[in-house]
């Protein structure tokens, strides 16, 4: 268990409205410079640098240098999961107002598929006996392993990695679970590669393509108006 002082320090870093906004932006996926984060937050570059220094010290973000630019991103998938989990504590009436419908339908949750589409994928796999749900994780059935292999997902390689194989990630807008972990990331990567889904120009929004509509309906019987 973390020491109460350490827990309070981390909570204070996230609890500041400006830093929470920065973390929310970084949760959308693409790395951002300090200048971009400053403009989006409506603060000066100096103020943004001060906030980012605190987030770096608290191991909530990391920075990468490319030429003259320094790009910030979340420190790890654990940070992303923590931020998503905290989003579940936001009152439903507030969350409903703030979530645009396209983002509610489909978005990335760090590196896996979330929203209505992500939840439907998880539930579609379960209903067909391809995925089994545990208390906080998923497991593929033998038939499920063969099914995702047809999509180009190598489950043997995924299971040998350090990352949890398949997490039940509670979706903050749907209040139901989607597939996270190594399997969730691999599924999202393949769906992008197959062009069943595509990124929206801004943020972490995802759109369902014509190919995706056909593919989901043919393979899992999933359809949307």
From TrEMBL:
It comes from the Bacteria. Transmembrane segments: none annotated. One of its GO terms (biological process) is response to lead ion. PROSITE patterns: HTH_ARSR_2. InterPro entries: ArsR-like_HTH, HTH_ArsR_DNA-bd_dom, HTH_Metal-responsive_Reg, WH-like_DNA-bd_sf, WH_DNA-bd_sf. Residues 1-94 form the HTH arsR-type domain. One of its GO terms (molecular function) is lead ion binding. This is Winged helix-turn-helix transcriptional regulator.
């Amino acid at each position: 268990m973390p020491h109460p002082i350490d827990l309070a320090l981390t909570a204070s870093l996230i609890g500041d409205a400006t830093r929470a906004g920065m973390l929310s932006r970084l949760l959308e996926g693409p790395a951002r410079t300090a200048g971009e984060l400053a403009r989006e937050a409506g603060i000066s570059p100096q103020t943004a640098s001060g906030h980012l220094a605190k987030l770096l010290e608290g191991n909530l973000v990391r920075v990468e240098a490319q030429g003259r630019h320094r790009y910030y991103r979340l420190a790890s998938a654990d940070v992303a999961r923590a931020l998503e989990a905290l989003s579940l504590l936001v009152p439903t009436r507030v969350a409903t107002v703030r979530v645009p419908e396209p983002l509610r339908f489909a978005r990335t949750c760090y590196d896996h598929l979330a929203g209505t589409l992500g939840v439907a994928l998880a539930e579609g796999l379960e209903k067909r006996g391809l995925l089994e749900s545990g208390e906080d994780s998923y497991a593929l059935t033998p038939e499920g392993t063969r099914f995702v292999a047809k999509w180009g997902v190598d489950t043997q390689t995924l299971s040998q990695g350090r990352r949890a194989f398949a997490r039940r990630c509670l979706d903050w807008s749907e209040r139901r679970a989607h597939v996270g972990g190594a399997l969730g990331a691999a599924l999202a990567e393949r769906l992008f590669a197959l062009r069943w889904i595509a990124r929206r120009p801004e943020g972490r929004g995802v759109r369902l393509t014509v190919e995706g509509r056909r593919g989901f309906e043919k393979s899992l019987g999933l359809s949307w108006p």
